[in-house]
Design a protein that fits this description.
Helix content: 40-55%
Number of helices: 10
Radius of gyration: 22 Å
Number of strands: 8
Strand content: 5-15%
CATH topology of the largest domain: YojJ-like (1
Strand order of the largest sheet: 2-4-3-1-5-6-7-8
Number of domains: 2
Structural class: alpha+beta
Order of helices and strands: HHHHHEHEHEEHEEEHHE
Distance between the termini: 66 Å
Shape: elongated
Length: 276
């Protein structure tokens, strides 16, 4: 349709469709479905290029693969699609910003749980998931998908409970799983004072973009592992700042969150990141 044939109704029509697509994509950010969508787009681009170059066999194969995705996607990603529909039903499609009150509550619950474990010398390891899915970590653990509360976190790490030895994986909405066993770092130059929890925190942050908060039961200290590096002991304000950063982070607005976090640890906070 030529440009001069556009009706005035077409402009709001285009805007509404673009807005809906944008909000749906924002709901998928950080999920496996988003990673799948990226893969489908890459395959689609390869297929388009194959058509342009008249690579008939490759075009035929890609066409069949994309056709199969129509059936496979709803089956493999039923949880993600259900979650997306639930979010739409809650009105999150139209909400542009995070619920700041809910964000502050989650950050405060996690902060208080970590500080309680520190005061009581209870060992704890919380892995905060970002863009890289940690399914390989929690798929063999105890799946919770529960609200983030101080009481539940303390109960999980309480000595003698079945899950206290493993790590807890959280995302920005819930406690995903508990009793998770993480890959240990292969570094040999870290201090002998660091135990299994610290080595596990380093290990998971070496292979993912997540970061891990560790409470040492021996020394009563809280440290953070970022990108395979371990910080010195954190103060209460530093722990609270990290938790607030995490739960208020929005990938659509701040793509440099991890860089900012590392920068704050290295420059603003005493001690910086260390392997000592």
């Amino acid at each position: 349709m030529p440009f001069f044939d556009l009706r005035w109704q077409d402009l709001p029509d285009i805007f509404i469709v673009a807005f809906i697509i944008y909000r749906v994509l924002m709901l998928l950010v950080g999920t496996r479905a988003m990673q799948l969508l990226r893969g489908v787009l890459i395959i689609g681009l390869i297929g388009a290029l194959a058509n342009i170059l008249e690579l008939r066999t490759l075009s035929w194969i890609i066409g069949k693969v994309l056709g199969a995705f129509i059936i496979v996607i709803p089956i493999l990603f039923q949880p993600e699609l259900r979650h997306m529909l639930e979010e739409l039903g809650k009105g999150h499609l139209w909400r542009m910003d995070r619920d700041e009150k809910s964000t502050d509550i989650k950050a405060e619950h996690l902060t208080k749980a970590l500080l309680y474990c520190k005061a009581q010398r209870i060992g704890a390891l919380c892995v905060l998931q970002r863009n890289t899915s940690l399914k390989e970590v929690w798929r063999t653990a105890v799946l919770l998908k529960s609200d983030i509360t101080e009481e539940l976190l303390i109960s999980i790490f309480w000595p003698g409970t079945p899950l206290h030895d493993g790590a807890v994986v959280l995302d920005q909405e819930s406690i995903v799983a508990a009793g998770c066993y993480l890959p240990l770092t292969e570094k040999t130059d870290i201090s002998r004072w660091y135990g299994t929890r610290h080595r596990a925190a380093l290990g998971v942050t070496e292979i993912t973009d997540s970061f891990a908060l560790v409470v040492s039961e021996e020394r009563g200290e809280i440290t953070i592992a970022v990108g395979g590096l371990l910080s010195r002991p954190l103060s209460e304000n530093q722990v609270r700042s990290i938790c607030n950063h995490y739960f208020s982070y929005d990938g659509g607005k701040d793509s440099n969150f991890m860089a900012r976090l590392r920068d704050e640890i290295q420059q603003k906070w005493p001690g910086g990141i260390s392997n000592d």
